[in-house]
Sequence to fold (536 residues):
Amino acid sequence: MALSADQPSRRTGPVAAPDPVGWFLTPAQRGNPHTVLDRRHPHGLAWSLGNRVRPLVHGARYFRELYDAVEAMGPGDLLLFTDWRGDPDERLDGPGSEVGPVFAAAAERGVDVRGLVWRSHLDRLAFSATENRRLGAEIEAAGGECLLDMRVRPLGSHHQKMVVLRHRDRPERDVAFIGGIDLCHARRDDERHLGDPQGMPMAKVYGARPPWHDIQLAVQGPAVGDAELVFRERWEDPARLSRNPVRLVGELLHGEDRYAGPLPPQLPDPPQRGSHAVQLLRTYPARRPGYPFAPRGERSVARGYRKAVARARSLIYVEDQYLWSVHVARMLADALTRAPELRLIVVIPQFPDQDGRIALPPNLVGREPVLRLLRAAGGRRVGVYGLENAAGTPIYVHAKACVVDDVWGCVGSDNANRRSWTHDSELSCAVLDTDVTAGGSWARSLRIELMNEHLGEAAAVDELDDVGVFDAFREAAARLDAWHQAGGRGPRPPGQLRTYSQPALSLWTRTWATPMYRLLYDPDGRRPLARWANRF
Fold:
């Protein structure tokens, strides 16, 4: 039977609502006194209370809910979105639900549609400049406004993935969608993990329709006002959208080198909807000239994780696309060393997303020292897993989620690497449940939902303590590994879990791949080449 999200975790001590002060950052701990984000809260708080937060696991679920919500909007309402990549023909639900036409139709109905999409690098480098421009053009033609934003650090990107819907006369319908899911191809998968029919090229092992695991949050309540403020700070930045002289000429020819139009005044925050405390965490790089709202940058994603992980005593559960950075791994390793009963479960892609002699080794170089450091600190208290669907096709893990001791949960756009914690713009949503009278918590419910999918029928009891959960993952992966090693004879064991195995790299491969990894995937080493690339 599956794990039960409604029953309390078997930990010693009384079940009590956590104090947000002990888990969330204070305004001073955020380290960015220039933002209005924390000053808008009463009593000096750096978070909002009274929210309802629902995890939307899988892109198909998120896209369907987003489609229904946008279709219900009318004149005077406000639609704001930020994106790393946007494919205007990506379907949110089925034929006729393509992102570009849906947003454009909303603008034609009188909805005020504003977008900030990363300008992106060149398509021939496997990025999405053309598609991002097309999405913006469709919205602009319908009367909306969509800016291609390249105000980033060297080799950086705007990686925030958010849609905010405000309703002029129906504030109870206000919602902010925050997480790791872009409005683009390959994301519309579901629990069967057959892949989005509108796939995108990836490593051959994932096939033509790569199975995709991802998470977005639907946030209702006062935190919607916080999400809107995050958008407004970026929108109202008076700096040019790009400093690259070549791009400036091209954007002048396309009519894209312009400043944002004024936004309507921000409405009062929507009413309280639940018992969830929400803190928005961000990354903004230190750059010149700096952002007006973060002239020295902001690293509250990193600081928020460090504060929560420092309290870990029993179980840290992580789902991440990369887990590449030694700096992040050292934080987890320190927690494992400090707390001898602490266990760490990590779910990552079984294979990198790119094939080839050039792309593959740098991916693996970044992960090798991370795994070595974690296993040295935690030994058998560390479990690292990949996923596969029922047909044996690997599932690409794009989720960015963390649960600490079933108290603090976080979902967002940031990956567990230094790039996301210092270099790109990121937005994540940390959640605490201030009402645990029912015996559960939001963080536990999120963990159980994710684990139920990965374990399938492999969980033998309704409720497992943290040691039991850790062992259930290890045993489920071992059974599926053994089944594959035996040539797939007999019934396939339940679940998706495979023990992660790091391919060996030769000394020569490591020698040339390491500097490439540092340049492309960890560019905040402040190397001269990275600084020079700032304008390109």
Notes: Residues 466-485 form the longest helix (20 residues). The radius of gyration is 22 Å.
